[in-house]
Specification:
This protein is an alpha+beta fold and 411 residues long. It has 13 helices and 13 strands.
Length: 411
């Protein structure tokens, strides 16, 4: 018999709040975290805005010796992981049964960019000895594992903007199938620099509208690209009996997961929506529930022309008439798109929806695309009983990942 997997801790660092509580308060009040870039001078660039983490205070959670030489992407992950661990109340555990699954799309790109400039200006003998350890993606989770003595599998997931969701899904499977009992699961990203933003700009993936409240506008007829963001989301996943044995506070349950690949194009989604359609179907089958059981969807909803249209089509393919009874909220309208971290952040949001029966809004959707005609929960949060929900993530390379969440109602 497959084991049940519950959520006992969550941590988040985002453009709308530096912990889960402040993030959630911002989201249900429709606060936009997008603003003008401060991490470098973007005044002469086409793209001037991003969803930056503001007023980061790692010293609230970490000793200076733990973060002062780290790339920002690792620091964000350590802060989120510490928040999640503290909430979980974990104390005594078997280290070999504690895994770490952290995804990222790009990893330590700030270190790569800065050290490349240094090597050209001062020579390669001046490159930091921490260059490699700050840039490779596995050491995002590796630093978490070291801090918390998690000696089980430490597996990085690198599936572009699906990475956070895939990381949670793979951790879910490891626990469900009996390989481990506990896991850190999530994602981290910090790539707001001239190199990353410049590349996304020249490939025309980003919105060129530099009005913070009119740039990330998922499902709007006038959407023209995503707004890059940074952040981290980390959850503690735990086998149900393990959690019950220590009287843990259970926040929600994960009951299904699936991942597919469009195998279609390096950046564009499959124009038939086959990949995301099948991914949702497989996740629901894994959860052993019907489409009509779902109450809420947190979509990928990036504000790019193709993604929003084809994700909507995929939802309609699966849910048929029930698609119009669902509440959907594109929270990237507030957070921006934190690439490999966003799936984990949105998993936390989806868990909060189920926990509180409160659905955050999609903001700044002013002119609906006729092909995007579902209930996107416009402008204001609402109350609704939510027993089952899904979170979708899509990424470059045709990556699709879907998680199914359930309200925890006891044994």
């Amino acid at each position: 018999m497959k084991r049940r997997v519950v959520i006992t801790g969550m941590g988040a660092v985002t453009s709308v709040g530096n912990d889960v509580s402040s993030m959630w308060e911002s989201l249900i009040n429709g606060k936009c975290g997008i603003d003008f870039i401060t991490q470098y001078d973007a005044s002469n660039n086409k793209v001037k805005i991003a969803g930056e983490v503001k007023n980061l205070q790692p010293e609230l959670y970490l000793e200076p010796s733990e973060y002062r030489k780290l790339d920002r992407v690792i620091t964000l992950a350590l802060v989120a992981a510490t928040q999640a661990y503290n909430q979980s109340g974990l104390k005594d555990f078997d280290p070999l049964r504690f895994g770490t699954f952290i995804g990222s799309g790009i990893g330590g790109i700030n270190t790569i960019y800065d050290e490349a400039i240094k090597s050209m200006e001062k020579g390669t003998d001046r490159v930091s000895p921490f260059f490699i350890t700050n840039s490779i993606i596995n050491l995002i989770g590796g630093n978490i594992a070291i801090k918390f003595n998690a000696k089980g599998p430490a597996i990085p997931v690198v599936t572009a903007c699906s990475a956070g969701t895939n990381a949670i899904g793979e951790a879910f499977r490891y626990i469900r199938d009996g390989y481990i009992d506990i896991a850190f699961a999530g994602g981290s990203e910090s790539s707001i620099n001239a190199l990353s933003v410049g590349s996304f700009t020249t490939m025309r993936a980003l919105s060129f509208n530099n009005e913070p409240n009119n740039s990330s506008i998922p499902f709007d007829k006038n959407r023209n690209g995503f707004v890059i963001a940074e952040g981290s989301g980390v959850l503690i996943l735990e086998e149900l009996e393990h959690a019950l044995s220590r009287n843990a506070n259970i926040l929600g349950e994960i009951v299904g997961y699936a991942s597919t690949c469009d195998a279609f194009h390096i950046t564009a989604p499959d124009e038939t929506a086959f990949g995301i359609t099948e991914c949702i179907k497989l996740a629901l089958e894994d959860a052993k529930i019907n489409p009509s059981d779902i109450d809420y969807i947190n979509p990928h909803g990036t504000s790019t022309p193709y993604n929003d249209k084809l994700e909507t089509l995929g939802i309609k393919n699966v849910f048929k008439d029930h698609a119009y009874k669902l509440n959907i909220s594109a929270t990237k309208s507030m957070t921006g798109h934190a690439l490999g971290a966003i799936g984990a952040i949105e998993a936390i949001i989806t868990t909060k929806v189920i926990e509180t029966n409160t659905i955050p809004p999609t903001i700044n959707l002013k002119e609906r695309d006729p092909e995007c005609d579902l209930n996107y929960t416009l402008d204001k949060s609402i109350k609704r009983d939510v027993n089952y929900a899904i979170s979708n993530s899509l990424g470059f390379g045709g990556q699709n990942a879907v998680l199914v969440f359930k309200k925890y109602q006891g044994e």
